[in-house]
Task: structure prediction
Amino acid sequence: MTAIIVKRVDSGTPDTDEIRDLTRAAGYEVVAEFTQVRKEDAALQVGEGKADELAAAVAETGAQIVVFDNELGPYQTYNLGQKLPEGTRVIDRFRLILEIFGQRAQTRKAQLQVELAELRYELPRAEAKTSLAKRDERPGFMGLGEYDESREQDIKDQISNIKAELDSIARTEADRRDRRRESGFDLVAMAGYTNAGKSTLMQSLAADLELGENDELHPDLDTTAEAQDRLFTTLGTTTRKMDMDRRDVLLTDTVGFISDLPHWLVESFKSTLDAVYYADLVLLVVDVSEPIDEIRDKLITSHDTLYERNEAPIVTVLNKIDAVSDEELEEKREALSALAPDPIAVSGKSQLNLDDLRSRIDVELPDWKREKLVLPMTDDTMSVVSWLHDHARVEDVTYANDEVVVDFEARPSIVERSRAKAGELASAMSA
Result:
């Protein structure tokens, strides 16, 4: 399908790069672009003359859809539809993003989040129809649909039901995180804007096998993480075991941030960020090949989002250094030092400096505790020793006639569980 994109700004120079990428990500071929610098027109978003030019271009190109980078109200959508050739769809960037999310949603959680966002998008429009229909005492609002007062309440009921199901999924995911920590894993999450290279970086850092819903490894999965130069390749979260020497680390790739999202849309997908909020360490991935001002704006927005609930340390990763010169990289390091005081520069695509990144991850993750555990020799002692080998870094095991001494390092929670197991062995022996 073919599309024409439109962007209006109050001042400055309209930048259509992102809306063009979004439109293509939704599967449309962009055949024309229109921009305008002026105050918003209440009836048409753009000026009437520009709307006439747009209508002529739609007729000439046969475009099936017109995508506005600006948010459209129901009144503007109706008026534009009246001006354009019959059958032309008119949507704004938020409706477009929902289309993309809908195409990429594969898990139940992702599908629910898309449905929630669509309902939150529709609710104010349903409220507007209800209000105007009541005021005008007519069963419809300018061709936007039949007036049905029950529709507004139906949407609210659906939103409530979806939020309840998402809360249930969130509790299940929290239990899964707890089990993984109890198994000795450190949890590292990647955050950042779309096309920052997170999926490519994960492919370079993590093992081929993905952790499934029940924490089982699936050997029949594709051996490469999906990494494409398009927006929203990763809608849900993908978790894989990292290639680390000293620790057992799970790396999670999350949905990419995108500019200028409204509150209702961010809220709908907020549970996806739980993997970030509850991680032990966050890697904030940045495309260092972008202009400095753009990187700075994205870092500020990312920090606002992450620091709202996140308590884990955040390491800024300047990705795609293969696309910039050493001089440009150093210039950007200095310019961004206030927002990213100690970044690490890598290339996931060219696999540059990845060992340095692994070392940094090791340093930033919570310290492990050293423990020397004395276990009484019972029928169950060797199962505890085996458990320690699976969940900790065992330095030495010494066997005596009536006891086993295990010298190891582990997460504090594993040390506590090992002490409890030792206590259970002692109690069973004395019983």
